[in-house]
Specification:
Elements: H1 5-14, H2 21-32, H3 35-47, H4 56-70, H5 76-86, H6 89-95, H7 103-124, H8 136-139, H9 162-166
Helix pairs in contact: 3-4, 4-7, 6-7
Protein name: Retrotransposon gag domain-containing protein
């Protein structure tokens, strides 16, 4: 049993007695290795940049795995150059101009840069507003003042208007 997880459950749905190998192979390729599937994977590999809240380590590992699947003959240096172009702009600016010959070197240095940038952002983050130390009674807003009622010009609320009560 070589199929696992989602592929195995897919196989269980199409399996029937006497299923010819050629039919299974054609359906399997259409499902997991079609030109559409490969095009979507290439789009993820070359087109999707690092999201603002995405961890650099996870991003690099995902791209490296896609290279293993789609372009296994690509050198580590070529992979690194392409991956660096898809990193966040702040990270990319610091990483640019160097050559990385292995996944380990790339991951280590990007991790350090991201840590430094995170630390810098936390230093520049706005501080919480100071807590008001006055007693609670002093912090209450002043009571609403009465305003001149437009109907009669008196200093009272509508419910207390003597002209309204006469009607």
């Amino acid at each position: 049993r070589a199929l696992e997880d989602e592929a195995f459950s897919w196989f269980r749905r199409i399996e029937r007695p006497g299923l010819p190998w050629q039919v299974f192979k054609a359906q399997f390729i259409a499902k997991y290795d079609s030109t559409t599937v490969r095009a979507n994977l290439r789009k993820r590999l070359y087109g999707r940049p690092q999201f603002p809240d995405e961890d650099a380590y996870g991003f690099i590992m995902e791209k490296w795995a896609l290279y293993q699947q789609l372009a296994p003959t690509t050198t580590a240096t070529e992979r690194s150059v392409n991956i660096l172009e898809l990193l966040r702009p702040a990270t990319r600016a610091i990483m640019r101009g160097r050559s990385y010959s292995s996944l380990e070197a790339l991951v280590e240095i990007v991790g350090q840069v991201e840590g430094d940038l995170r630390e810098d952002r936390s230093r520049n983050a706005p501080r919480a507003a100071p807590v008001d130390q006055r007693p609670r009674e002093e912090r209450r807003p002043p009571p609403p003042t009465t305003r001149a009622y437009y109907n009669c010009g008196g200093e009272h609320f509508v419910r207390n208007c003597p002209q309204q009560q006469r009607r």
